[in-house]
């Protein structure tokens, strides 16, 4: 029995025989097998906390202290953890180590407001300090991971991204947490997407402990590492665009293919959770019959079991037919994902149009997204889209709060 189950589903199982090319969607899912008994990897964890002056507002720092104190309690004996605070400079509160004395660790976390790291926001110092600490115990047998929390803008964003990409190259994943309305959501999302992590938006500070706990449980439950999806395309079939879908939607754009093979990095797989990708495929015209479209291979590691580069795959076929009734039947599971991606793309494009000054187009796209969100039962997000559309139509700009709510909310 394979350690990972791979499923591949087309939006249509049958397409009409015509002289024109066909656009179909391919959904590929990867899920750790339920009965294989893989134990989670031990952690090599760095928690990097913004302690700039703005973190003292709305009790944000108090909630952070509560959240990180809970993390200390939940760490397993095999886990290694370091905690770092940054503002103008960075300080290591807890050096990289196994946390045997949890009360002492919690006490050091509670003393975060007493250390002097300045009042500005130089995230790069925190990232570099985290990498230095993680390197002391870095190992392919451990889940090497950074959790980065901030509530504001930082200097040297491009250098921060470069440092995080360097960390990813060393086998360190990075998750980001943005609190409030003053951080750059695109910056934090880009880091998490590029570094096999997750990005979170926290609207109200009281949710900080909940999100920290969610992230900790997630990394503690990783059982399959470094998965890569290899899509081997049949002749004359092209990938027009690709998206990560779960855990969060991310537009990968027009991914390159080399010798009819497209490769996409997939995030580490957690026990009981599914990661999925959506591909737009362009199919050529063909005579009636059943044809192979592609083979979806997942290549993965489970270092704790000595498994490296193992492959499990799924063939994808489609039938060309002259039966209009058969060709009209869609796969609801796939089309539901397509609808979610469509809403995400509309709100993204709308906000871009608003920034470019095209208020009419931005308003139209946001109202269209709101209609689809209502149809999907997401009234809160639909209301947010309508509110932003109204502001933009009246000559105002999109609000920071509304932008973040839509940017994060439509990715789920």
Textual characterization of the structure:
- This protein is of the alpha/beta class and 412 residues long.
- It has three domains: 4-38 and 223-330, Immunoglobulin-like, CATH 2.60.40; 42-220, Rossmann fold; 333-409, no CATH class.
- It has helices at 60-74, 102-110, 123-135, 157-169, 185-194, 208-220, 324-327, 332-356, 359-375, 379-393, 400-409; strands spanning 4-10, 14-16, 22-32, 42-50, 80-86, 90-98, 142-150, 173-179, 199-202, 222-233, 238-246, 250-253, 261-265, 269-270, 275-283, 289-302, 307-321.
- α1 packs antiparallel against α2 (102-110) and α4 (157-169) runs parallel beside α5 (185-194).
- What's the number of extended β-strand segments? 17
Please estimate the helix content.
25-40%
| Main pleated-sheet profile | 6 strands, mixed
- Continuous helix count: 11
Look at the structure and give the CATH class of the largest domain: Alpha Beta
Structural class: alpha/beta
Compute the CA-based radius of gyration. 23 Å
CATH architecture of the largest domain: 3-Layer(aba) Sandwich
Which tags fit this structure?
412 residues; alpha/beta; Immunoglobulin-like; Rossmann fold; 3 domains; six-stranded mixed sheet; 11 helices; globular
């Amino acid at each position: 029995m394979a350690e990972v189950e791979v499923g591949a589903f087309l939006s249509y199982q049958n397409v009409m025989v015509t002289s024109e090319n066909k656009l179909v969607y391919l959904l590929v899912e990867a899920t750790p097998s339920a009965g294989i008994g893989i134990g989670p990897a031990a952690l090599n964890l760095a928690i990097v906390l913004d302690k700039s002056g703005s973190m003292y507002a709305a009790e944000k720092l108090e909630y952070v202290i509560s959240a990180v104190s809970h993390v200390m309690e939940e760490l397993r004996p095999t886990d290694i953890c370091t905690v770092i605070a940054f503002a103008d400079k960075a300080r290591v509160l807890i050096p990289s180590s196994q946390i045997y004395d949890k009360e002492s660790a919690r006490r050091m976390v509670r003393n975060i407001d007493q250390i002097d790291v300045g009042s500005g926001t130089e995230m790069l110092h925190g990232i570099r300090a985290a990498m230095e600490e993680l390197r002391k115990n870095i190992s392919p047998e451990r889940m090497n991971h950074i959790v980065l929390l901030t509530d504001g803008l930082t200097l040297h964003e491009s250098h921060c991204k470069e440092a995080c990409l360097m960390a990813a190259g060393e086998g360190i994943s990075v998750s980001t947490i943005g609190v409030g309305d003053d951080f750059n959501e695109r910056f934090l999302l880009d880091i998490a997407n590029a570094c096999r992590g997750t990005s979170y938006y926290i609207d109200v500070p009281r949710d900080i402990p909940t999100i920290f706990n969610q992230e900790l449980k997630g990394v503690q439950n990783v059982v399959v590492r470094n998965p890569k999806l290899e899509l081997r395309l049949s002749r004359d079939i092209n990938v027009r665009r690709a998206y990560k879908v779960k855990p969060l939607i991310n537009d990968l754009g027009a991914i390159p293919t080399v010798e009819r093979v497209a490769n996409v990095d997939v995030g580490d797989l957690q026990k009981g959770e599914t990661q999925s990708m959506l591909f737009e495929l362009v199919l050529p015209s063909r005579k009636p019959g059943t044809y192979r479209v592609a083979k979806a291979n997942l290549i993965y590691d489970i270092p704790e079991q000595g498994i490296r580069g193992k492959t499990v795959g799924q063939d994808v076929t489609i039938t060309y037919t002259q039966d209009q009734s058969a060709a009209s039947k869609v796969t609801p599971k796939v089309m539901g994902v397509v609808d979610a991606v469509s809403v995400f793309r509309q709100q993204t494009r709308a906000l871009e149009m608003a920034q470019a000054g095209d208020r009419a187009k931005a308003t139209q796209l946001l109202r269209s997204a709101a209609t689809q969100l209502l149809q999907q039962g997401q009234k809160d997000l639909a209301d947010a889209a309508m509110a932003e559309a109204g502001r933009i139509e009246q000559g105002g700009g999109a609000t920071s709060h509304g932008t973040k709510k839509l940017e994060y909310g439509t990715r789920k």
